[in-house]
Amino acid sequence: MPHAVHPAPLAALALLAAACGDRAAPAAPAAPADPRACPERLLADHAIDVSPEPRICDALAEALRPLSPSSLAEVRGLIVVRDARGPCADACPDLAYALMSDAALAFYRIGAHELHVIDATFDGPRWRGGTPTPEALADYLAQLGLPDWDALVARVRALPGVSLPGHVPVGDPALFDAIVQAGPPTLLGGDVPLADLLRHELGHAVLLRAAGESAKVRAWGALSGWTANGGEPADGYIRGVFALERPIVASRLLLGLPRGDDAHYTPHRPGLPTPYAAFDPMEDHAESFRLVHADPEALGRASPARLVALAGGVVDLRAPALRGFVRPGVAALLAPEIDPRFAMPALRAIGPALVAEAADLADPRPLPIPASTHPDVRAALDQLQLVVEVDGHTFRPSDAAIARLLDELEDARAEQEAFTRVLEED
Predict the structure, then answer these.
(1) Which tens digit of pLDDT belongs to each residue from 110-132?
(2) Which residues, listed in sequence order, are joined to residue 238 by a DSSP beta bridge?
(3) Radius of gyration, CA atoms only, the chain
(4) Are 206 and 71 in contact (CB under 8 A)?
(5) Distances from the Cα of 333 to the Cαs of 187, 219, 336, 365, in angstroms?
(6) Are 9 and 379 in contact (CB under 8 A)?
(7) How many helices (H) and strands (E) would you count in the chain?
(8) 156-180 pLDDT, tens per residue?
(9) Which of 66, 95, 279, 351: disulfide with 283, CB 3.0–4.6 Å?
(10) 8 DSSP 8-state letter
């Protein structure tokens, strides 16, 4: 992550806006039908103007309806942009980028808080790049680690739903059209309805919009087992720049090839909910966010920890089909390597399910805070409310997690103090 011009205030460091939901509210009576037209409702309620592409309005309203208050706050003001093509259109630097761009069904522009709706959102993806140059094709095959064109054809022919003629000429655009069309349903685990596709993009906004996005990515990455290419915990930054995974990795995943030593990120734990979640930590979160709404049972089967982390205010984990995922998910969130600023709000949010299924994980001991802890660090720690009380049961982070957090807060306090001293001396 790039160094800031000045150190982050200690309070800001303490308050990690975790990508989890809010405490589930009791079921309310059905509201009367809203007489406002869909575009008017979204603009008034969420500050989202769908006039650039009104056809998404009903699906976007459906995607927004079950979101928790904290998620709605992050997606508020989303800017809808209508494009013809994917992220790099005709300016893609290589064939892997071009394939991933043409396979995109929609995309979220980080920083700009934009939801880009493209032709493929409605008509499905198509290859628009024509016949690649021999140099571009040779580079693509080398990046894939395939020996020749015939090896690529064999891999594509094996994809679900792909039908190719017996002979495919070298560079034939039909092969790349097959890659682009097969990519989304293969990596997403099937055809995804528009509302769920938009939920995926909203998941990006929830994780990446607000300040502190690297802390949220790092917390999610720790939960789901991601590291960056140097072995350090993934926080979304590669060599000081926020970076998504290299597009060639999408081609490798689709074609059943290894991620490659040049990949930016590596997952180290089982539990990825879809093949596309294996792309990078950001797509892992977006796919998990989609599934917690669309199919929470499938998410729980893949990863109880991901389900529990995202369930608050979204689903009742006491439901018979979900309750078996609660204890392993809670145990994973209480593991020493998980940031308690992420874990404890998630546990607080699932409310009664915490006690119903995981009461044996309660720990009533006081937090191990040394008497020598600086008052500013104590105050920052108090803001976090790391102790969760539910029906007389006390849940708290492990001693190791608290010790690591105290070290981080103390480092931030010392850095802030040194910075203030320099300013005073000037």
Answers:
(1) 999 999 999 999 999 999 999 99
(2) 241
(3) 23
(4) yes
(5) 27, 10, 8, 18
(6) no
(7) 20, 9
(8) 999 999 999 999 999 999 999 999 9
(9) 279
(10) P
